[in-house]
């Protein structure tokens, strides 16, 4: 049976971006340090960088364990815009459904993105597209929180980068639900500790 897998990276103090995140600075000021593990080391917004090419072995193992069975994904409009729509083409395996209330400016279908209004509708579309493969729920934090509140997340994977940002957007800001989690795997590298949890039934 296919699963819903929510993944996100945060700082030790719980921030998933630094302050002032947006186009051209997708992870906020200082937030690029959150994704050193994705880039295989330090990078900046001003330099050329290609995610996934130089990951450490532990980061690769973590990444592969979660992405090998994906058939579709969901992200928020904020993440989509902060990433500059990934240059106008979906870089992920399978279609990406973008959660937004503004669907009039729907991108060309050939780009691999579909704007959907409402989390339930986005999840239904992603599940249909994924078939028997898994659905990924990625940033931003609000999209992760919506998925957890809806009770549809089977696996929660949190990568914690060794940095304290002090400001930005927090993963669990305003989240009041009581969740029971079971640790199923931990991967450790120079740039992150990746903890994979099963989300247990209440």
UniProtKB/TrEMBL annotation:
Residues 3-192 form the Bacterial bifunctional deaminase-reductase C-terminal domain. One of its GO terms (molecular function) is 5-amino-6-(5-phosphoribosylamino)uracil reductase activity. GO terms for biological process: riboflavin biosynthetic process. This is Dihydrofolate reductase. It comes from Nocardioides guangzhouensis. The lineage of its organism: Bacteria, Bacillati, Actinomycetota, Actinomycetes, Propionibacteriales.
